[in-house]
Design goal:
This protein has about 220 residues and is α+β, with helices and mostly antiparallel strands. About 20% of the residues lie in helices and about 35% in strands.
């Protein structure tokens, strides 16, 4: 019963991730009234360089939906356009992108949901040269060492909005480390993702972004 409850909770959070991401502002970079805010020392170009400087990355993540439901696991990213959110062995869920499509995989009910990456706020994270540079803008914060970039395409509101938060870190690509992001899809589904324990330049096999289709299997391989 405990496993089922965990799986149901992860499903609710994971589906909101696949449909498109946002939520409450992250703890590290609160949005503030204009009278108290100031411009960060970084720029949109700095954010683009930081994202494009990541060849591979693995980090722990905590994910929170608009109702406060939480899930945690490990995120693996590889250029170009690949990402995997692994919720651990106790979860029957997986969220993975092969560079073109984002899949929410439910091994308990043998279901796979597919979302085109370019139609999700995740598109800005996975293709920074296309989205961040053209549609990104700085969002003032209270701290110079925090860079907040909001990305939206005004002509495509169905693509949603993503706000990426970077913290200055000399050890990170481009000198700015992706700390968290918040996103909002066209249906106002909200999700916050916070990262920790970043590791860069790892060897990541292409098979990391494959998955066993539960519609053709009796159970998830371990």
């Amino acid at each position: 019963m405990m496993a089922f409850s965990f799986s149901r909770r992860v499903r609710l959070v994971a589906v909101s991730l696949g449909a498109g991401l946002l939520a409450v502002a992250p703890l590290t970079a609160p949005l503030v009234p204009a009278a108290h805010a100031r411009q960060a020392s970084g720029s949109v170009d700095d954010a683009v360089r930081a994202l494009r400087g990541i060849s591979t990355m693995r980090a722990d993540f905590t994910q929170i939906d608009r109702d406060g439901r939480r899930a945690a696991g490990t995120m693996t990213l590889k250029r170009p356009g690949k990402i995997r959110f692994d919720y651990g062995r106790d979860s029957d869920f997986l969220v993975v992108s092969n560079g073109k499509s984002l899949y929410v995989v439910d091994y308990e009910v043998r279901q796979v949901e597919r979302y085109p990456v370019k139609r999700s706020p995740l598109g800005a994270l996975l293709d920074p040269s296309r989205d961040v540079a053209k549609y990104g803008k700085l969002v003032p914060t209270l701290r110079d060492e925090v860079l907040s970039i909001e990305v939206r395409d005004p002509s495509r509101p169905e693509f949603g909005v993503i706000t990426m938060i970077f913290v200055k870190n000399a050890r990170a690509p481009g000198g700015w480390e992706l700390n968290s992001w918040v996103a909002l899809d066209a249906q106002n589904h909200r999700t916050t993702v916070r990262l920790s324990n970043h590791r860069y330049g790892l060897s990541v096999a292409e098979s990391t972004f494959d998955f066993d289709d539960p519609r053709r299997a009796s159970r998830r391989p371990r």
